[in-house]
Every structure is written in structure tokens, then in C-alpha cells.
Amino acid sequence: MPTPFPELSLRRLTLDDLVSCVDLSENRGWPREEHKWGLLLTAGQGYGIDDPSGQGLLAVSVVTSYGPDLSAIGMVLVSERYARQGIGRRMMEQILEDAGKTPLTLYATANGRPLYEQLGFVSVGSSEMVRGHLRPSARAAAEVVRTRRATAEDLSAIIRLDTEVFGLDRTHMLARLPAFADQIRVAEENGTLTGYAAAWPNEDTHVIGPLIAQDTGTAKALIASLAPGTDRPFRTDIAVHHEELLGWLKEHGLETVASNTMMTYSIDALPGDWTRRFAPLSVAAG
Ligand SMILES: CC(C)(COP(=O)(O)OP(=O)(O)OC[C@H]1O[C@@H](n2cnc3c(N)ncnc32)[C@H](O)[C@@H]1OP(=O)(O)O)[C@@H](O)C(=O)NCCC(=O)NCCS
After folding, report:
1. Distances (CA, A) of 18 to 38, 73, 282
2. pTM of the prediction?
């Protein structure tokens, strides 16, 4: 098959491209999510193709590196006008080539999944995006496991726990969390951190993520303890193998609004400990 639009090339994006990225999200019916784009374009590496008409970008994606053992791909978007013409495939092929031997992961929408499968990505699980106001009845969970607001002194313990559970060091993301998130809560047992959760503002919601906890009870307590700090509905992406937590969230006011397939390339499974990893920081960054 001839290369589509041979004159179009992928370039590295900077924060100056934020508005074009946000416009492209909107073009595909996604929320504008400026706050999230700001994080992704600073902590990750955005790639894009300029629209020859001079009107912004016609394709984008973001690659967040976690060192030589994993990069996460997210926000893969091709403008409606250029869809189904091979541009998404070309952009992904370029990203795979640039990644070299580094394993990759992403959360695929139903739209994106066929393309990723054709490129050799395999499914390793799925997640449900749930949204809604947590009912006051859920607050009882916060009384079972003690949690508290995180302070600056907790950051190194958060990073230590996160590295163990995520399987890789993501200090470059977590160091940005205090500025990016509106709330960070920790759970502790005998002076040792057993979990943490952040809630960051996204459009009209607060997204819960990362959510890391030693067990479901701790995850529930962390979520319940975030609720008094916001009037907005929550949104979070819970890996479906955490059935109990998903069931509890649905019993207490949240409902499923989307689902995604977790996929990898060059590795059979994600590193780390999935039993303690309940929600990603964002599906766009892992
Ligand atoms: C998914 C997306 C990036 C694909 O980009 P694209 O440039 O349209 O894709 P391509 O033309 O390179 O198509 C590659 C293959 O993907 C599959 N594909 C593309 N769009 C699809 C769709 N809407 N439904 C089902 N399969 C689709 C097809 O198999 C296609 O190959 P074919 O046209 O030879 O059958 C684009 O449709 C998009 O931006 N969608 C909305 C946002 C989204 O869901 N992004 C994925 C996030 S994980």
C-alpha cells in the first residue's frame, strides 16, 4: 500500500502545542482536558502532525517514558477529517520504531484496539471508567482504615511504595503530583505507608489516580476519605480484576461510563504488583 500523505511528518510537541492538542481532543468528541494535557506535554513527550492547512494539528499522541523497561502511549488522536486514511497507523509505526526495544503499554478504546492489534499489541486486561458522586453511605469505609492528608514529608515514602507496586520508578510524574492534584491522601499502618490516592481536577470531575493500596479495604478508605474534599463527581479507571472495589463503587453511586483494554507490546505482562494497583494516574500515562 502506498504511504498515505508522504509529505506529512511527525514532530515533537511542546507546551506551545497545548491548545492544538486540546482542540483535537474536542474534534474527536473527547473532553478538552487542558490540565491533563499540560501534565502529559511536560512529563511525557508529545508527537504530532501539523495540518497542512495551517490549522493546528491533524494527529497527536503522547509517550511517557518510565526508563528502558516501559513507555506508556496515550491520547492517540487523528482529526475526523483525516480519519481512516492510514495516518494513525503511520504515527504508531513511527512511535514503535523510535521506542526500539523499550516495551510499550496503552489503554485502548474500542476505536483504537483494531489498529494496535494489527501492530502486534496484545491484551493484558481491561479497566472500567466509573463516574459519579460517592454516596455519603460510603464514608463508613473511611472509618475502618485510617487515612490522612499527605504532607511534603510523605513524598519519598509514596515514591518508594509506588516503585514497588508500579514496578518502575516514576518519580518524574509523582514529583508533579502535589501541584497537579487537589488532594493526596495516604493510609498508614504502624508507621508504614500502605497506600495512597490522589484526586486531580479534570473538567467537571475529580479523577482519582494513582490509587495504590495494600488491599481493597484500604482502597475504599482512601476513596471515601477524598470525598469530603470535593463537590464534583469522581471519575476513576479501575482494573476489572478488582471486582470488589468496582462493585462497591457502583453500590455507592458511581456508574460505568466507558471501558478500555490494557495492552502491551514486547512484554507479556505489566511490571509491578497488579493486586495493589487499583487505578492509574491517567489511562493516558499508565
Ligand atoms: C483510532 C484512531 C487514532 C485511528 O486513526 P486513523 O488514522 O483513523 O487509523 P488508520 O486509518 O491508520 O487505520 C488503521 C486501522 O485501524 C482500524 N480503525 C481505524 N478507525 C477505526 C474505527 N473507527 N473503528 C474500527 N476500526 C478502526 C482499522 O482496522 C484501520 O485499518 P483499515 O482502515 O485498513 O481497516 C482514530 O480513529 C481516532 O482518533 N479515533 C478517536 C480517538 C480514539 O479512540 N483514539 C484511540 C485511543 S486508544
Report:
1. 7, 17, 17
2. 0.95
